[in-house]
Amino acid sequence: MNMAREIPDLFDVNGFLADPELWDRDMALRIAAQLDLGALEESHWAVIDYLREHYLENSTLPWEGNVCRDLDLVENCVRRLFGGPIEAWKVAGLPDPGEEARNYMLDLEPPDL
Asked: What is the pTM of this model?
């Protein structure tokens, strides 16, 4: 099931939520399920809340190291919890961060095996 196809007016062609104000925790659970992330634990929600707060205040994505350090989580916490920053960004219901930021996020994604 592709969320972008399921509700085309809400998601862009890359699967990012077009309007972060439409996001809620139920939507996060549906997106996480679609991405096969399993159950969202307390540490997932801490990262999600951090990403949303940072983006809504600054209109930018934070460095992964800052997220993990500020939340007192293990190094590479975003990758460990979500598989990569793009998945975390999508679950957090944030819009496409732009080409440069998206490429940065892609560089942090684990290699396909």
From this structure: 0.87
